[in-house]
Fold this sequence. Notes:
It comes from Streptomyces kronopolitis. By secondary structure, this protein is α+β, with helices and mostly antiparallel strands.
Amino acid sequence: MILTGPEITTAADDGRLRIHPFEADQVNPNSYNVRLGSTLLTYTAEVIDAHHPNPTRSFEISDDGYVLEPGELYLGHTLEEVGSDVFVPLLFGRSSVGRLGLFVEITAPIGDIGFHGQWTLMLSAIRPLRVYAGMKIGQIMFFVSTGDIDLYAGKYQAAAGPQASGYWRDIATVRAVAS
């Protein structure tokens, strides 16, 4: 079951889910609009290596916005901190943003129960596209879970700002266990 807009508001009020800051006008019939935070991150290496940490460059979006270039992966973040110990969150790009040629979070839309923090957004533009901090960029839906809950306690917990991939940590753990 998916939460309706009024139930999202009720759950935010009673603490079953956390959205901070919460703005009533961002509640949709069955989702909540999230806004783009002010920081973007890009990888600086010619080749990104999944087995090793990758160098990045971080920068702030100015009041005049920032032009996303095709062929570049940008890591952004939600302005809002979102999480729940009860519901399963899913984040998707808003259709109006998709109609501008911006892919948002197309490979990893599901959040874990127990994660609380700003969501890292994977942004990829088809054409040069100017984006602005604070623009409504995505929407999060919340689903009711069934069964025992094992709360998330992973490497991205309490994320603030965009987070580069920590996949290399998983590989290092697998290598250590295999040794």
